[in-house]
Design a protein that fits this description.
By secondary structure, the protein is mainly α. The chain has helices spanning 6-27, 33-41, 47-68, 80-97, 101-110, 114-137. The protein folds into two domains: 1-74, no CATH class; 76-141, no CATH class.
Length: 141
Amino acid sequence: MTTFTPVEALLGGSLIGIAAVALMAVHGRVAGMTGILTGAILPKGDWDWRVAFLVGAIAAPGVITLLTGVALPLQADLPSWAIILGGLLVGIGVTFGGGCTSGHGVCGIARLSRRSTVATATFMAATLVTVFVIRHVLGGF
């Protein structure tokens, strides 16, 4: 069951948008997590901001918990093999799609990129089909 949280979604989306605009303004780079991670693993001269961005993304839930005293629920009601398989499939899709949902969906669509709009529509359609098949055809996990 998914819980509707419009305030949290608005705040989170706003922070993502601000981070994407700030990264473009300061470094002239798109905030695509896959590209940022790849550049941190295989550095080509701009390693420092990439690592700082990733550390911030990873540390943010801990900072929220420290500031509010409320721990964010970090759980997945799936078997480990399903999470690993999903991660591998996403990695393959990112490779063939030339980027991820953050790069295409947040930054590409904002720049009115036709390629990013098509990629994001494809991501969303694949997600819809996958969720439908897993929940309604296979009976869920």
